[in-house]
Amino acid sequence: MKINLLDEMWNLCSSRLVHRRSGTMSSLSVPKPACLNKPFVAPHRFMFGPGPSNVPPRILEAGANPIIGHMHPEMFEIMSDIKSGIQYAFQTQNNLTFAVSGTGHTAMECALFNALEPGDGVLVAVNGIWGERATDMAERIGAKVNTISAPPGGCFTNDEIKKALSKHRPALMFLAHGESSTGVLHALDGIGDLCHQYGCLFLVDCVASMGGAPLYMDKQGIDILYTGSQKVLNAPPGSAPISFSPRACQKAFNRRTKPVSFFLDLAWLANYWGCDDKPARTYHHTGPVSAFYSLREALRMLAEEGLEESWERHRTVAEYFHSGLEDMGLKLFVKDKSSRLPTVTTILAPPGYDWKEITSFIMKTHNVEVSGGLGPSAGLVLRVGLMGCNSSRASVDMVLSAFRDALQHCHKSKV
Ligand code: PMP
């Protein structure tokens, strides 16, 4: 009813405008784009690539709620619910827990830009594209980056990490829990303690793993943890949960220099999210209201299922998927079973085939998105993401039959 009223107001207003303009010469040199004459209707696709994943109707509907002010009391309540949802999903008591307005990269920059100052040492574990990107970001702000590298598909031992910490004495260490370019799930136990032993903050990227594999921010000594909305959470891209431990706050709030980004300045964001001790919140930026509605619903769905239940579902579905792939003669890229990411699976590009032909055949014939490799895995692998609501045996069966079909119909050269 209310929506109809708004529609009518708009129609009335635009018909008046048309009336007033008719007969007068236009001052515009750029005409109305013809492409905008018709509305856009998104096709339905099975989003089984590394993200974004499908968004369930409940979350889409939550996002379609009417817009309210980003600083209305109801919005502050939603933000407080989101904070509690993230604390649950991350398993943390950290007060400074919120969602960055932006995608996973924004959260990544929020973490690095606030925790590091020019000249600070940072140790980046590089076993795929996310370590490479973290290196690039840290270099841009004048941090001194040292890396440890493992071949794509590989991991680091705690001993290797300890040696690098003791050699470089960094202020911060970066590690991807779920390396979505290579399909690796990195063990975290003990690394937080090692970092703290060397006076270093532990920063973890869980964009591709949160909700899909066990993760305990506080117990594992993680100082900064961030994720994205569009993977296991099944919300639209555009908001990115993040949390800072008291140790990380100590560093971020006692800087000699201002963070390079105003938009990502933690002091401003802490105030916007009601996480500081100031009596009132000040306008910083206009939060993405609809994205926050969706994120709240996504966190609600995760809490409804239960975090442990969600981890277990992703584990069993991934196992079912992996054995189905191997039965078909396909080879998994990550050799060590315990290091396989349950959310994003990397499959060795089948010899003799053009991987691009396979992904486009599957899209065209089955309406299913799967993708090729990224960064160091480009050309080497196919990637399939089964995350959140897409992590089911039914999705696995659909992907397996699409692959079977592709291997039969795509061109195969002699190898
Ligand atoms: N880290 C990891 C592990 C990711 O998988 C992604 C998204 N593919 C990102 C960071 C960046 O997230 P976004 O694309 O939302 O910026």
Automatic annotation (TrEMBL):
Q: What is its EC number?
A: 2.6.1.44, 2.6.1.51
Gene3D superfamilies tied to this protein: Aspartate Aminotransferase, domain 1 (3.90.1150.10), Type I PLP-dependent aspartate aminotransferase-like (Major domain) (3.40.640.10)
Matching SUPFAM superfamilies:
PLP-dependent transferases
Q: Which CDD domains match?
A: AGAT_like
Which of this chain's residues are annotated to bind substrate? Answer: R383
Biological process GO annotation list? glycine biosynthetic process, by transamination of glyoxylate
Q: Which residues carry this modification: N6-(pyridoxal phosphate)lysine?
A: K231
Q: Can you name a GO cellular component term?
A: peroxisome
Q: Name one Pfam family in it.
A: Aminotran_5
Which cofactors does it use?
A: pyridoxal 5'-phosphate
Domain (Aminotransferase class V): residue spans on this chain: 67-386
- Listed GO molecular functions? alanine-glyoxylate transaminase activity; L-serine-pyruvate transaminase activity
User: Self-association or partners: how does it assemble?
Assistant: Homodimer.
The similarity annotation says: Belongs to the class-V pyridoxal-phosphate-dependent aminotransferase family.
The name under which this protein is listed is Alanine--glyoxylate aminotransferase
Report the source organism.
Answer: Gadus morhua
